[in-house]
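User: Could you check the structure of this?
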Amino acid sequence: MSFPVTLRFKPSRRLWAALFFSHALSLIAIGMLALGVWASVLALIVLSLSLVGVWRMIETPVVVLQDDGGVLWQLEDGNEALGLLVSGTAFSWLVVLRLRFEPATGGKSVRVLVALADSLPAYDFRQLQVWSRWVASVRRAVQDAEGS
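Assistant: Sure, the predicted structure tokens are below.
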């Protein structure tokens, strides 16, 4: 793998379906509960706001993986944010990365990148899996060496 690796995400149909069906199951559960009218209305409003909020939070970024564990997250307005991998999980169908950003406004921010197999082309998804496992193993080796 030659660095940097640029990954262009697209919306995941599987993620949309999982979010939709989980909210639909919650709606059915609320309907089956013996709640009062006002409690049911309040629960439906909260559930609707939850779905809209989650819908807006899902991003399709352009991510550039670097050999030092760094990530360039390209934003919609053309700016880039540099992040370092905090931790991650890689399965054959799912990669979850937790990235630490230091915004210009100060403080620290952690963003979670969820990549399902349908959110990237197969080759790019495989590169993301290999990179996340490689960075995690290098970080563990460095931490073990420092701890000894």
